[in-house]
Amino acid sequence: MNTDNLLLPAFRALSRVPRPVCEHVGHAVGRLSARVPNDSVRQLAKNHARILGQEPSTRHLREAVASYFTMFAQTPHLSQMTDQEVHRAVTSSGTQPVRKGLDDGPVVVALTHSGNWDLAGAWASRALAPVVTVAEKLTPPELYDYFVSTREHLGMEILGAERGVFHSLVDRVRDRHVIVPLLADRDITGSGIEVELAGHRALVAAGPAALARRLNCPLFAGYTSYRRDGRNRLALHVTFVPVDQSESVEETTQRWVSAVEPLIREHLVDWHMMQPLFVEDLDPARLARARERHALERARDGEL
Asked: Among 38, 124, 146, 264, which is least packed, fewest CB within 10 Å?
């Protein structure tokens, strides 16, 4: 949502309020915000409609925006959580193959913008292995610095999403027993890959497939959702994605998108996708540039 300049002072104020109160307020404010939708909420509704095959109900949309606000309400408190609190806040499924893959080196996870990926990263860095990831550069820069500082405090290594980051990431994680989660259900590089999602063409990031292939390491699709148990606990769902070195990055990318689609459908209310990712919603000039850049990047062997 278009509130970046307000987030940092809000985070600082909320850090002095008990976490359960913040979560309750965030949920309530989200439901109210959905009643007067802005461009971001309208785009969320369009994205969810494509998954549902019909317009989302008023109740669904309110709960979806409330989920989004709950995530942000939790952010100021993440760095204050003890290891025990983090472990209690997250449950997981499908992580045993991740543990096995880590025995041999790095593991890549293609993540979606859902639930609370920072809390999931905090849990993974404690329960599985060190986490190394890439963060989108935000404006104002102070907001980006805040998120980086929070994630580093949670035990994650952060690289900024900028030109050349793919090669830096390869060098940083090669031969290490680390998890590399990459938010990938929309493209921010201008060189994304077209896939089919819920019967529609969508543009997603090339990074997870390209990195797993370059490192010849396991690839997983990950989705986080809230457990509606009154405590806003998080569920991390992980699915193994086979990587065939004889296939293209495009084919591997479609594999993880197809693997995560059932999770998006099942827990759609927690998919915080408020930006255009379906080709029908993208600016034609931007899409043309993305296709051209992807062709160039593919010629240079898979740079992000």
From this structure: 38
